[in-house]
Design a protein that fits this description.
With about 750 residues, this protein is of the alpha/beta class. It is built from 22 helices and 18 strands. Strands 3, 4, 6, 7, 8, 10, 11, 12, 13, 14, 15 and 16 form a twelve-stranded mixed β-sheet that branches. A two-stranded antiparallel sheet has the order 1-2. α11 crosses α16.
Length: about 750
């Protein structure tokens, strides 16, 4: 019989220990076992904020982007540290496409000539801003192009913004668009622009979102100054992330590759990010209709849409399209009891420039965890499951290093990985966690056990206090006050968990702290040690808190007698998403019926400005009656199965061999939710519950197959995807019924 006293459980399942009494086993809810608590106290004692500070300063000392000499040096330095900590470590190298600009030009030709600087400026007192080796300001994966065309302002450049332009009779076909950063992932903006016929795309940071409207610009304050530019990938990663030339296979040196022209994730029009210094003359020159109130930013101008052809812009972008090495550092500490069950932990090491915040603040916390675990191992600690710590390369260019590693080792990872725990950038503020909802209980326990370094309350209580004070409504406040579980967020994409969770169905978590350190340095030359210590985490106490939280997740998953999966947490989340879809269907039907009435009564024509062309909105296909009864029935069955599984786990008295087999089923269960053919128009994404939105990018779409079909008016597809979703939930239910 297995002794269950060391079980590290989760959520409604609780934590259990066994007592022999009157010849039978009694289970009671408990905190983590005394042994586990002692282990975590020893772990905490080995963590040092000062050590994290030193690592951030060293790793962010110089620019170290993918393919650079310093990027390789950083990888080799991390490799040496892992070995010093007592881990078995190696470099795994992939050969990936990486475009870097060789020509960038942007001129306003008329009515008043202007040539954009396209360069961030040296800041007095910040020596990092003067360094050599900085990547220019650009967006990776836009097309090469040399275009001259009229300019149109498109707000955030999202589908709804083009609907507004249609209502005003303004077309972007054959034109260059200028969009604001914000409200979506940057790559959506040129994607939607191309779909509407634009020949080029500019993206600028308006000071209303991140500049003087919010507070002082750098160096006086943390926000963007007039020359700050957000670099970043615009790859169409909602199709698939990773190397565009090697989808579904690792980009090894001899891998079969697509021709660049065949790669669907490389955009078809040139794209360039610019500062609000360079955007101001362009926007000032625009005339035509005044932009709607919601479109207007904080520049000292009247915002016009343009579109009349009077403002001509010349945009030229040319890249070198080189294959470069991406160096992943993979470190392993072999498990004593279950060596073929892996707990994988990752954070990327590459940056657009120096990257003190993104990613080094998270990387330094991860390295501090590895150092502490290595020291515990020297003193006799043996992880029961194998620990694998990974420092990824090429994340900034759309998850190149992690995706290629996952695709290259897909079979082994699918069989062995219990869970993947990811971090990225980190700063002071509130605990943020997202991921697989079967791990809600685990995250809740960690959030209750770790204390906020400045407020001296649990992370759970501080996060709940933030949520309560962010709403003025009594009912939500009361609900938050009474809640027992941490509100684990669903994951879209944007960091290295994507291939694990959404491609292979490996349970995944993503941790960070934030909310009090403004992001004005994001992907700029000012994301450096000087900015970080002034505005993000001056004493690096939240770096230590990140190591405590992620380290606990690793240690509890490693040491658990029974793995801490509670599928009632998953059921609750999916039920909530299903209710949202039901409400969306009702709202869309009501809106369409209202629009038809407005059109019938010529409301739009009566309200139109007679001085301009005005196009009424096009009605989509009629929204049918949407019935989700069978989906809710499937969810009821899942809830019953989850509850019964919890009871069977509590009463389990099998052998260690039987326990090992059943633990394997627990961490394999989420794969029941993978769609064999993947999602429509993007089969790389296979998870039926979580995916990045086709038009939101980083932002998640839950129940993506049915939600996006409904939003886009693909009603036959909706019914097909609904059947597939119900099928996957029933497969999961049957799987749980046969576990333990």
């Amino acid at each position: 019989m297995v002794n269950m006293k060391h079980r590290i459980g989760a959520g409604a399942m609780g934590l259990f220990f066994s007592l022999q009494s009157l010849g039978h086993v009694i289970y009671a809810q408990e905190k983590p076992s005394a042994d586990q608590q002692a282990l975590e106290q020893q772990f905490d004692a080995l963590l040092s904020s000062e050590s994290i500070r030193e690592q951030v300063k060293l790793l962010a000392d110089r620019p170290h982007h993918l393919g650079s000499a310093r990027g390789k040096e950083v990888a080799e330095l991390i490799l040496a540290w892992f070995k010093q900590y007592g881990w078995q470590a190696k470099l795994e190298t992939y050969h990936v496409l990486f475009p870097t600009p060789v020509e960038r030009e942007l001129q306003l030709l008329s009515p008043t000539p202007f040539t954009a600087l396209l360069k961030e400026q040296v800041v007095e007192g910040d020596s990092y801003s003067t360094q050599e080796g900085q990547l220019p300001t650009y967006n990776a994966w836009g097309a090469d192009g040399d275009v001259t065309a009229p300019l149109v302002f498109v707000n955030y450049g999202l589908p709804a913004d083009y609907e507004e332009l249609d209502r005003q009779g303004i077309s972007v076909k054959g034109k260059i668009v200028i969009a604001k950063y914000g409200n979506s992932w940057r790559g959506i903006k040129p994607k939607v622009a191309y779909e509407h016929g634009a020949v080029g795309c500019l993206i600028y940071s308006d000071p209303k979102e991140d500049g003087y409207f919010q507070g002082e610009g750098y160096p006086q304050g943390p926000y963007k100054n007039e020359h700050t530019v957000q670099r970043g990938s615009v790859m169409d990663m909602v199709i698939y992330p990773g190397d565009p030339l090697t989808p579904n296979r690792g980009a090894t040196e001899k891998a079969e590759r697509l021709e660049r022209e065949e790669a669907p994730t490389i955009l078809k029009i040139p794209v360039l990010p610019i500062s609000y210094h360079d955007a101001l003359p362009l926007l000032t020159a625009l005339k035509g209709p005044v932009a709607p109130p919601a479109w207007r930013g904080a520049l000292p101008i009247t915002y016009h849409v343009g579109g009349n052809g009077d403002v001509k812009v010349h945009l030229k972008v040319k890249h070198s399209w080189d294959i470069v090495p991406a160096y992943n550092v993979i470190a392993t500490l072999k498990g004593s009891d279950y060596p073929d069950e892996w707990v994988v932990r990752g954070n990327h090491h590459d940056a657009w420039v120096n990257g003190a915040d993104d990613p080094v603040s998270g990387l330094a916390a991860m390295l501090e965890e590895a150092k502490a675990i290595g020291e515990l191992a020297r003193k006799g600690f043996k992880p029961r499951r194998t620990l694998v710590y990974c420092a990824w390369d090429g994340e900034e260019q759309s998850l190149l290093g992690s995706t290629e590693w996952v695709e290259d080792h897909a079979k082994e990872l699918s069989e062995k990985v219990v869970a993947y725990i990811n971090t990225d950038g980190n700063s002071r503020g509130f605990f943020r966690a997202g991921g697989s909802h079967a791990l809600t209980g685990l995250v809740t326990e960690i959030a209750r056990d770790v204390r906020d370094p400045l407020k001296e309350v649990s992370l759970f209580d501080r996060k709940r206090a933030q949520e309560i004070t962010s709403t003025n409504s009594v009912a939500p406040q009361k609900k938050l006050l009474d809640k027992k579980d941490y509100a684990l967020q669903a994951l879209g994409t944007g960091s290295d968990y994507s291939a694990f969770l959404q491609h292979l169905g490996i349970p995944s978590l993503n941790f960070s702290f934030g909310g009090e350190g403004p992001g004005g340095d994001y992907h700029s030359i000012y994301d450096n040690y000087n900015h970080y210590v002034r505005f993000k985490d001056p004493d690096f106490v939240y770096g230590k808190a990140l190591a405590q939280t992620a380290g606990r997740a690793v240690l509890r998953l490693s040491q658990a007698e029974v793995l801490p999966f509670d599928f009632e947490g998953l059921h609750k989340a999916v039920l909530e998403y299903a209710v949202e879809v039901q409400s969306l269907a009702k709202e869309l039907k009501q809106q369409q019926e209202l629009n038809q009435q407005l059109l019938d009564k010529s409301i739009f024509e009566v309200a139109a400005d007679p001085k301009k062309t005005y196009t009424t909105p096009k009605l989509k296909a009629p929204v049918p009656q949407i019935a989700l009864d069978t989906l809710f029935s499937a969810l009821d069955s899942l809830s019953v199965a989850a509850d019964k599984l919890n009871a069977r786990i509590a009463a389990f008295q099998g052998s260690k061999k039987e326990l090992t087999a059943q633990n394997g089923r627990l961490y394999q269960a989420e794969k029941s939710l993978l769609l064999e053919q993947g999602l429509p128009r993007r089969p790389w994404y296979k998870h039926s519950i979580y995916a990045p939105g086709f038009y939101t990018g980083y932002g998640v779409k839950t129940l993506p197959g049915i939600r996006e079909a409904l939003e886009e008016g693909h009603y036959d597809e909706f019914q097909h995807q609904l059947r597939l979703l119900e099928q996957q939930l029933l497969i999961l239910t049957e799987f749980l019924n046969a576990t333990f």
